[in-house]
Prior knowledge:
By secondary structure, chain A is an all-alpha fold. Chain A contains 3 helices and no strands.
Amino acid sequence: MTSRQVALGVYTLIVLAGVLLQLNSQRSSSRIPSLGTVFSRVMRTRSGRIGVVAGWAWLGLHFFAR
Amino acid sequence: MQGQRISFARATTTLVRDPVAVILVLAGIFDCLSGNPIHSLLLLTVGFALGRDAIVGRSSEAAPPAPAAPSLRFGPAGIALASAYVVVVGGFGRYSWPATVAVLCPAAGVLLIAWRGDLNQPAASRKLDPIGAIAWASVFVALAIWELTELLLQPSLRTDSYAHPTISVLTDPVLATHLGRSIVLSLWLALGWFLVQR
């Protein structure tokens, strides 16, 4: 197995873990919150809200801007 | 002098308890060192403004209450505008000035909306189950650690590696085409809209 395959495998596992958590959150008895709920909680303060949105803005700049 | 010491201590305590501003400033410094002055400027501006807001807001007893969240709707006109945006801006070359300005405008707009937003939404006041919070935090921390690992395994911080790809390197082939850039811009805008609704 090459280093690239390992890297891609780990990225895939992490994404799968996120998808599984999100699916699990849809069950009524689940203790796992949805991703939307997590963001709502994190963004309940000004600093959390601005921090998350600044991260989003940076993401756009990172991929497209000089 | 005593008053200044108390203010400094209070400011330090505020920033330690709520370190988002410090994190943004540090990220801005490292982005500047990496040769990305515009990214850095955004992070530093937001970080310093947030830090000042936190310190002055905490020390001011006459701080006004947070304004109500702006009413936001995304009707057919908004969808048409967003569609035109991703088609046109997707045609701009990556890292060009037109692309830079085109991304900066919505980024600044959403930041302004977030700055003015309601901070006391009842739906968001419920605490998360610790198990759920740890589970989601683990996913994001794992992603950050693996991305950092791959970055540090590159020949240098500015040299891409096929064997140790970062997320940026993996997305390069997608972002090399007009269609790919438009799709990624759509996802980026959708994420921004999702965040504004929180």
